[in-house]
Amino acid sequence: MKYSRLTKEQFEELHKEFINFLATQSITAEEWEDIKTNKPEVAEQELDVFSDLVWEGVLSKVTYIEHISPQQMHLFNLKDSHMHVIAVKLNTPIDLTTKEGFDWLRENLMDENVEFLQAKKDYSEDKHADKFKLIQQGGVITKGDLYKYLNKLIN
């Protein structure tokens, strides 16, 4: 498996898609029940293949990822050939993961305790794996509103 298996909740959300996936392999509902009961290792493989297909689809479309920790924020714009990151670092004990901390940042963007950094990073040979790694490390897929706002502000 290239990425990670979808959670039980994600499988439930994608129930119809999973049925279609099984149908493309000519596996009926009865056959699927039989596989789960009598060949659990085959069922596990099918779940893994489906999970990877879903992740490939998601990762091919994702353009923005945000990672916010108490003292730092990393906003990624995932372009075709590279990623651009805007990093915001607080040199104060304000916690960006709280509403109060985020509100403070919004009102004090030009404060001397707020530091902005930018970087461009080329992808490795597997662009989707690079994106997936950001998500595994706590990044969240977004529409990029925060990235666009800060990009306009600092560039």
UniProtKB/TrEMBL annotation:
<dbReference type="Pfam" id="PF20105">
    <property type="entry name" value="DUF6495"/>
</dbReference>
<protein>
    <submittedName>
        <fullName>DUF6495 family protein</fullName>
    </submittedName>
</protein>
<dbReference type="InterPro" id="IPR045470">
    <property type="entry name" value="DUF6495"/>
</dbReference>
